[in-house]
Amino acid sequence: AADIDLAVIAGDGIGPEVVAEGLKVLEAVTAGSGTKVSSTAYDLGATRWNATGETLPHSVLDELRGHDAILLGAIGDPSVPSGVLERGILLPLRFALDHFVNLRPAKLYPGVESPLAIERVAPDGIDFVVVREGTEGPYVGNGGSLRAGTPHEIATEVSVNTRFGVERVVREAFARAQARPRRHLTLVHKHNVLTHAGHLWRRTVDEVGAEFPDVETAYQHVDAATIFLVTDPGRFDVIVTDNLFGDIITDIAAAIAGGIGLAASGNINPTGESPSMFEPVHGSAPDIAGQGVADPTATILSVAMLLEHLGRTDEAARVEAAVAADLAQRGSAARTTSAIGDAVAARLS
Ligand code: IPM
Ligand code: MN
User: What are the Isopropylmalate dehydrogenase-like domain coordinates in residue numbering (predicted)?
Assistant: First the structure.
């Protein structure tokens, strides 16, 4: 098998702790396959910003482009003003590397408790994936303020939706729906209020849908979607939505599927023109950093997504199965970060 040349951005807080377990599992699943995993560490995040004022230097971005994939832990710290690292590192990475598919699966594994009443979860279970657009919407930073600090201040954040950007993510969502047993795609938007963008998304789903006649489609306004996510999550198979709606509903999705400690994600460029980046949905959790108590499962599942993206389907499935087996017998006893990584890795050897 080909070697894996990884860029690793461990980041802040619990980032380095969970990334270490992700790499441990990656080593374990590839051991004996002849694959050499090499990882190059890049220090980006609060520490670097505090020391040098740098966020994402051009030279680092250029180097990142040369790797097969990026594994990211978490970025953020209370010592840095809100928005600096988001607008300076995470979003520039997603934009510059054109990660237009932000893939966020929500799956309730056996043995994992959902905060939803059991009858809400059964009989269909929770097993859907959100295809969140990753490069447009209100995230583009197309906004400004007028008369700041006065009683007449006006602040705008313009949501940018291009036909090109919407079409490519919608096509990807259809392809993913087509490949799943249920073949069902729900567009989540708010076309009754956001009429311009909403109609672009709707029309695009209708038009691209003609290429996928065996995928059934549905539409839900985002507010209604939040209701169904907690009252009837079994109805969802693949959801496609814009960047901001996707941000919000994937936190709900993580919560109903056992919590943010289990939620994995991929920032994917399906064209392969630049490396995709895999990261747990959770943040840097500075309150528990350095204690060895963070759950590395979301990072380990992100490693499974990374393997899948690199076409290493078998290894991806083995990692997911090892995590599922670990979750099934986890119980309520607290385990350390490294104990969970060790247990998953042991199942792979
Ligand atoms: C996420 C995060 C980011 C986002 C922030 C940190 C910029 O909330 O990955 O969901 O809004 O996308
Ligand atoms: Mn988020």
Answer: 5-344
Query: What gap in Å lies between CA 132 and CA 244, rounded to an integer?
Result: 8
Domain shared by 285 and 193, yes or no: no
Nearest alpha carbon, ligand 1 atom 12: 247
Separation in Å, CA 153 to CA 47, 81, 141, 146, 233: 34, 22, 18, 6, 41
Residue 247 alpha carbon, nearest atom of ligand 1:
10
Which of 206, 222, 257 is the C-terminal boundary of a domain? 257
For the question of whether the overall pTM of this predicted structure is more than 0.80, the answer is yes
**What confidence tier does 122 reach under pLDDT thresholds 50, 70, 90?**
confident
Say yes or no: 267 and 238 in one domain: no
Query: For ligand 1, which residues put their CB under 6 angstroms from it?
Result: 86, 90-91, 247, 281
Look at strands 69-74 and 264-268 and give their pairing: unpaired
User: Domain range holding 242?
Assistant: 114-257
Task: Tell me which residue has its CA closest to atom 7 in ligand 1.
Answer: 86
223: annotated active-site residue = yes
Domains in the chain: how many in total?
2
